[in-house]
């Protein structure tokens, strides 16, 4: 009968859902809403899983400059992106 516990303001819009203090459906959906609607970030991590929200429009986040920015970087040091996941997979496969 009580409403779900709310995460502190500092965690709202966090890159990784696993860093939320309270990980329940309303908190996850609110975090994704803040990232997508307020910040126009379509990618969010949930641990090692990449969560993507389809913006139903073309975004300029898949160009060669973005590929180069993620090349050779660690997954945790950059914003969530499909290129970060691909770079991490390539590094682990090469090892």
What is this structure, in a nutshell?
Keywords: Actin-binding, ATP-binding, Motor protein, Myosin, Nucleotide-binding. The chain has 95 residues and is mainly alpha-helical. It has helices at residues 25-38, 64-70, 82-94; strands at 43-46, 49-52.
Main sheet specs: 2 strands, antiparallel
What's the number of helices? 3
Helix content: 25-40%
Radius of gyration: 15 Å
Poorly predicted residue ranges: none
Count of folded domains: 1
- Return the average pLDDT rounded to an integer: 93
Helix/strand/pairing category: mainly alpha
Quaternary assembly: single chain
What's the overall geometry? globular
Q: Report the order of strands and helices.
A: HEEHH
Please list the strands of the largest sheet in the order they lie side by side.
Answer: 1-2
SS elements, strand count: 2
Q: In whole angstroms, how far apart are the ends? A: 51 Å
User: Strand share of the residues?
Assistant: 5-15%
GO molecular function: actin filament binding; ATP binding; microfilament motor activity
Pfam families: Myosin_head
GO cellular component, one term: cytoplasm
Keywords: Actin-binding, ATP-binding, Motor protein, Myosin, Nucleotide-binding
